[in-house]
Amino acid sequence: MGHRWSTGTRARSSQSIAKPAPHDAARSDADLVAAARLDRGAFAPLYERYRDDLLRYTFYCLGDWDDAADATQQIFVNAMAGLPRFVDRGDAFRAWLFRIAHNEVVTRQQQRARRPQSQLIAGAEVIDRAPSPEALAIAADDHQRLWLLLERLPPDRRRVCELRFAGLTDKEIAAILGKNAGAVRTAQSRAIAQLRDLMGISLASTRGDHD
Amino acid sequence: MTDERRRDEEINRFWNELLHSRENPAVGTLEPDQAETLRQLHALSLAPPPDHARLRVARAMEQTLAAPQAAPARNGHAALYPRDLEIVVRGNTIARDRNLEAWLPGAQVASPPSPVVRGPLRAAILHLATALLLLLTLGIGILATRPLLPSTGPTALLPAAIPLMSTPEPGPALQTLFATTLPTRLIPAAGNLDFFVWRTTLDPGIHTSYQGQIKGFQMQHVISGELTLTANGPLQLFRGSSGASGMVSAAEATPGAVLLLHPGDTAIFAFDQTVAYANRASTPVELVAGGLFAGHGAWLPEGVTRIDHNELYPVPELPAGPVDLTLVRATLPPGAEVPAPPAGSLAFDVGAVEESDIAKRPDGALRNIGPEEAVIYVLTLTPRGG
Questions:
Q1: Do B104 and A109 touch (CB under 8 A)?
Q2: A143 and B47 in contact by Cβ < 8 A?
Q3: CB contact under 8 A, A189 and B11
Q4: CA-wise closest residue to A36 among B90, B85, B209
Q5: Which of B16, B49, B369 sits opposite A59 (nearest CB)?
Q6: Which range (A152-161, B148-157, B187-196) has the least confidence?
Q7: pTM of the full structure
Q8: pLDDT score at B235
Q9: Is B356 exposed, middle or buried (0-12, 13-18, 19+ CB in 10 A)?
Q10: Summary mean pLDDT of chain B
Q11: How far is it, in rounded angstroms, from Cα B344 to Cα B317?
Q12: Which of A6-10, A71-75, B191-195 has the lowest average pLDDT?
């Protein structure tokens, strides 16, 4: 199929990387998956379609862009290897891909938790405390600011929000996390209430500096 | 629909509409600052990832795919997914994915096609497999008849073989906290039934009451602390405080009686009576509440805090007749499971501290898919007529 791996719409032109054919954008996941089963080069449009969402998601989970990029690469490799086992029914590919992503970040978080310095970060005492205005002010970008807020949520609410901010719906999140949709909706409501309080303390006062 | 559930639905609708590229979804009954919070958060998430991260992914993918293609399969067709991918993928990741897929609702796992081998090689493989099978059968036969044979000294064969044959899964610790059979009169008639289980707390000094107007029953089980309860109707009280494995006695309390419930005690009563709750002690009362009621109604008494909850509405029709109720506390290491309840049962779990990473299979079995140990309470209703 001749696809190469693209760095995205803002990729440097000096890279010898071509974007997938324009008509791929209109093709359904099911079509692209069917093509990718026969030719791994045909996986490129799926990569292009989901790379940014996965990068955001892994960043919200891991808090570091290099780690997020490494995790994203591993997720794509795992997805390619698992594609022959995947049975497509409608829009199931996206949920399946993010299930792989969820597994990957959980594995990486477990590896981090075994490192002594990470245990201090994971302490329960940081939960419910607002990120300082200084921390938000020096955050390099919007994603970092969002990550600082998400870090203050309890784990169940945070996991739902990480997937939400990566663009998934409540039903997809329920399928990925193995919960019922009602539990997801409740968790996200609680999270929004908590984030509203956190933002009231800090984000509102710092947004203007960056806009 | 309860106010809380309506709010949950509104937030969900608004968020979904934001995701589907509607810049200004209708606020509806959402509070304006909730909508604004969602807009701001959504806007933050729309920024593209930095180029260096994209480039890092692209380079890693190119390196991965630059690995040599696998040799064509022996039947003359190219393999769909070459061996080089298997080298790159961490072994445990794929295995874990497969386990998880089998657990999650709507799991869709298909086996990859087996390679087709023909000709002399096929015959050789068949001969080899037959020989291995014979050896294995012979070995099992020797091990099985070993106790009947004269002892020839210790052997290392069996212990060495066991780990190869099975990988022990971490087991759950299950403790039945309470079990009873609910009489037919407490089970609401079919139609618009709501089944719920909540983890709640009542802080010291709180006095509150609830005047119910809906049909059904509720259960209050004390985990810790002392709960003072007064009901204006009959109430079944199960004293479990002295027994670690469940109730030790049951009594029908008279209306108006002031009851003191200790850890392990359970009260069951009809939803359509007035009940007063109080915590007169200096420590919080930790409770698991659950029940089944008909229709809608916000019934959480003021001052009661919810830690976690699970709810199903509408509940599938229950067969007429009494219902067995069981409350189990499960401590689940990562990967451990609570077995499926009997067919036709309703079962829900709540986290002891907060919502846990629990996956539910279509048959109702529960598995801890999180990285840490989870403690959950599982409430099960099993119709006797089912």
A1: no
A2: yes
A3: yes
A4: B85
A5: B49
A6: B148-157
A7: 0.44
A8: 86
A9: buried
A10: 71
A11: 10
A12: A6-10
